[in-house]
Design goal:
The chain is of the alpha+beta class. It contains 23 helices and 12 strands.
């Protein structure tokens, strides 16, 4: 629910092939569940949502690091084998160049398997250093909890840390004499020889400093003096190294053909890799082998969210098909290819949009959603066309006010009191959390109402006393309503912010929740603070932020409202009008308005499809009871307008 603090002291600095999802909750399982538990059979019409479907969704999404780990292991192993097997050919080429009288460069190095081993001692020293750095910066945080927050499990972090060390040893060792050709190629593609020279100069500086320190240390030791601890060679800046590592990884991936569900591989498979595009698959990863790796980190909440999404997608697909609106497989594939190509080599690629902007759990899940959205868009084009007499189509005119507030950057100053079914600090779902959260929210609501009645009575008596020329003594038990509300936030709101580091610059607190005192925020900014996203809007059909931003009157306490992680009370302090309203005479703005209405109305269309479908095995309820928790009953009501 917040960007992991591990980036400050623990993080690998190794960016995986998909963008980080900052607000995706992947907590520890709140209870032990059977290894084979994926829920009762789930049917939408006569279509079975299979166990493989559910496993795929979870592994491509919240368990993606386990899949990426296998992928990187394969890449590293392939390079090690190439380095060992290619020595004889490299030596023959070198000798031929030398015999010709030309400069052959340095003699090829004969590598063995032992050259690419991370010893236990090496790893333990590095691991303890990482842990020490983190604990030094964040002494009040529980290390195991933070590793689970960022990597789902401590052993996941440790295996990726070892993998990172091996990746560096193979692809980006300190001495460029040991770099493989692919690393030089990657650096030159990125920035010519600049990065290579920078890295070489940094290495020489660190080596010179180390050599001098080592000579001084040895001299003291030889003289019988206490030399202190033996010097160690300084490390390359971790951020700089992580950037180089990413460049190399992207280059290596670009010459390997990788296929996932998007590419139509068999349902029991997750991934295939062809390392030289010869049609022979060097790596095949199945659902079951990764599921065995990840199942102990998966909670009922995770499973129920997966089931809900897959049922919603299937119900929508069936409705579109029944209405003759569904794209053919060829047209759907062509649309996704067009979407991918529209980004080209832009850093804001499909993955960044799907996972970063829209917060879908995976690109594969986004690829299930997008062709359905496109089919719906085509089917409602006539509704968005301007009428013959000019002006906006009725649906767009109705949508304009909400879209203006979102895309025109209107702001709301709201205070939100959160009672959690999920503990962000402990990063886990609480036992009976939903029931307890709701009960406490209802109790606080009754306390607010009781205080309001008592304050009104006290104020009336005070005015009557003043009219009679008397002064009514203050009643310590009765508080002015806003003061009472503020005290409730201080004492009961369960929003949690991570502590600032004890060393270094603390950074901005813009994303901090401050117990729910958000201050003036745009709708999308507030949505992020509440842990919501366009994906959750599609999945649940409603969002807490819409209830607060658009529907809550100024000065009144709304709620209890069910939200993504518990129950909420909210009070809007003020509203700031739209700063830059849409210009409907500008075709670009008009296009944004159309797209926004399509996205939002598609959510209603999809949920109506699910409600009307013949579905078995999908229940509504709370995740701590082992059933689906995304029911919109008593939840934030959907509001027209998404602005994404």
């Amino acid at each position: 629910m917040y960007l992991s603090l591990l980036s400050a002291g623990l993080s690998l600095g190794f960016v995986l092939s998909t963008p980080v999802q900052e607000t995706t909750v992947t907590p520890e399982p709140q209870e032990t569940i059977p290894a084979d538990y994926l829920g009762e059979p789930l049917y939408v019409g006569d279509v079975l949502i299979t166990d493989d479907d559910i496993k795929r969704f979870l592994i491509y999404g919240i368990c993606r690091p386990a899949l990426e780990y296998r992928r990187v292991v394969a890449l590293v192993e392939d390079e090690i084998q190439r380095r060992i097997a290619g020595y004889e050919d490299e030596l023959a080429t070198w000798e031929a160049i030398k015999a010709s009288g030309a400069d052959p460069g340095p003699e090829p190095i004969k590598f063995t398997r032992e050259d690419f081993v991370i010893s236990d001692e090496e790893f333990e020293k590095h691991r303890l250093s990482k842990f020490g750095d983190f604990s030094g910066k964040y002494p009040t945080l529980d290390l195991d909890t933070e590793m689970r927050r960022a990597y789902r499990a401590k052993d996941w972090y440790e295996r990726e840390l070892r993998q990172e060390m091996l990746f560096d040893k193979v692809f980006v060792p300190d001495n460029t004499d040991y770099w493989p050709d692919v690393t030089f190629e990657a650096m030159r593609q990125e920035a010519g020889d600049i990065l290579i020279k920078d890295f070489e100069e940094s290495y020489e500086r660190r080596k010179t400093f180390y050599d001098n320190a080592m000579a001084e240390w040895q001299a003291k030791k030889d003289a019988g003096e206490d030399p202190g601890p033996e010097p160690e060679m300084g490390k390359e800046d971790s951020m700089y190294r992580s950037i180089l590592r990413q460049i190399v990884r992207d280059t290596v991936y670009s010459v390997v053909e990788t296929k996932t569900a998007i590419d139509g591989i068999s349902p029991e498979l997750l991934l295939t890799m062809d390392f030289d595009y010869d049609g022979n698959i060097e790596l095949t990863v199945t659902n079951d082998e990764i599921w065995d790796d990840v199942k102990d980190t998966v909670s009922r909440w995770d499973i129920n969210q997966a089931r809900r999404f897959l049922a919603l997608i299937e119900a929508t697909r069936q409705r579109l098909a029944k209405e003759g609106k569904l794209l053919s497989e060829e047209d759907a594939a062509a649309h996704m290819e067009e979407v991918k190509q529209s980004f080209g080599s832009n850093i804001f690629g499909l993955g960044s949009v799907a996972l970063g902007a829209h917060m879908f759990p995976s690109v594969e899940a986004y690829a299930e959603y997008m062709p359905l959205l496109e089919a719906y868009r085509i089917s409602v084009l006539n509704q968005t066309e301007s009428p013959p007499e000019g002006g906006l189509a009725p649906v767009l005119r109705q949508h304009l006010n909400i879209a203006n507030q979102v895309m025109g950057l209107a702001k709301v100053d709201a205070e939100v009191l959160f009672l959690g079914a999920f503990s962000d600090k402990e990063f886990r779902w609480l036992p009976d959390g939903w029931a307890n959260s709701r009960q406490k929210a209802e109790w606080l609501r009754s306390e607010i109402e009781r205080n309001g009645v008592e304050y009104a009575e006290y104020r009336k008596k005070r005015m009557e006393a003043a009219a009679a020329g008397e002064e009514l003594p203050a009643d310590a038990e009765v508080m002015e309503p806003h003061d009472f509300w503020s005290r409730l936030i201080d004492e009961h709101s369960e929003f949690w912010d991570p502590p600032p580091p004890t060393v270094g610059r603390p950074g901005s607190d813009h994303g901090y929740k401050k117990l729910g005192r958000f201050g003036e925020r745009t709708r999308n900014d507030m949505r992020s603070l509440l842990g919501e996203s366009p994906y959750l809007h599609f999945l649940n059909g409603a969002m807490l932020v819409n209830t607060i931003f658009f529907k809550t009157p100024i000065g009144t306490v709304a709620g209890p409202i069910r939200g993504p992680y518990g129950w909420y009370l909210a009070k809007v302090m003020k509203r700031t009008p739209t700063a830059r309203p849409l210009n409907i005479n500008d075709e670009r703005h008009l296009g944004l308005l159309r797209d926004d209405w399509v996205r939002v109305s598609f959510i209603d269309y999809a949920h109506q499809a699910l409600a009307e479908a013949e579905v078995t095995g999908l229940r509504s309820g709370s995740p701590d009871k082992g059933v689906d928790s995304d029911s919109t009953e008593e939840a934030a009501a959907p509001v027209e307008g998404d602005g994404q």
